[in-house]
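FAQ: What does the model actually see?

It sees only this:
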Amino acid sequence: MFYKPKMKILGYKDDLSKVIGRKSIGYADAIKTVSDIIAKVKSDGDKALLQYAKDFDKSNITAIKVSQQEIDEAYAQVGQDFINALTQSKKNLEKVHKKQLEGIAKKWSVKVEPGIEVGERFTPIESVGCYVPGGLAPYPSTVLMTCIPAKIAGVKRIVVSSPPKIPPQVLAACKICQVDEVYQVGGAQAVAALAYGTETVRPVNKVVGPGNKFVTAAKMQCYGRIDIDMPAGPSEILVIADESANPDFIAWDVLAQAEHDPNAQCVLTTTSKDLAEKVFAIVEARSQELLRKDIVKKSMENIHAIIVKNLDEAVEFANDYAPEHLEVMAKNPEKIAGKIKNAGAIFIGEYAPVAAGDYASGGNHVLPTSGAAKYASQLNVRDFLKSTSTQKIERKGLEKIAKTIKTISRLEGLEAHGKSVEERLK
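And it is asked to produce this:
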């Protein structure tokens, strides 16, 4: 069976460090460029944004904010089939994210001592900027994925920023999601504008959404001024499969990730070398049919198959790799999925392709990459809520803990802390 040599078949006992480590987004080398951009936006405001539109986007825009008339015209232009598709996707996303909100207590409290009640209450972030990438294609799905959980969480002001000139499909998605403001600003300068504001762009409290290494570097540098969701890296998929899996299904799911960008990583871990070879042969043949075949050709260097002795080894590898997307195609997929601790999103069974989660099933496609699933989660309603501690203390409660306060404050050399208690209990 022929398969392209740069797609590699490895054994579980081989050195897998390069697979697990994968190619990082490499935002460190973008920091200097991004620092200069942020400084320029802070000092020159709109003038800098318009100049960067010319320099980076080759666009001579004269207005930064997109008017409601332009949004309405775009909505009328895209066609009913596309509107219907966005509407179904929105409906399913709303069902999932409303259920998330149901699982979050609006407030709670516990009596820790007689006269001391400590609690927590949750309130939405007041303003959020959703970054929607430009580039090779429009991404209206990213509008839905970022704006809908924010809307359901109760965020009052939701802003979208995307490189000029924004495709009508993206503007139509903004209208469907009832976005408050749309700015045609891309790249690091968009993040800077959303963080610090300009004459036209009002600043926000948090920026979410995927982007290239310059967007990521800008988010990292502006963190503290604003909150961010997570650093974003190249897209990735890990498939766990046994000999019963359909090689055509796996191959097309691999190609679906490979067409994202040249650094996308696709890994198949399977008990069957024969299956791996069949998948590679199909990937090689079908890749020539794709519009983005040049991108797929480059990303083939990041396609690997790892042959495992059993599915327990596959699960062990998956938890170490911590993929953005994990598909399970085996005889008992739910049992295997139940053992996974580290994954951005798990797709269970042969009729659960990643593409379903990307567009229509209701799950969010803004996911942790590059192993961040070991500590991070998919974008969700909780990302748009913040919690505030509440402490209700009566005199009898303060009396109960006064000695503890004075003992610890004395040890730390903070005399006034103890005095603030003594004064109340005189």
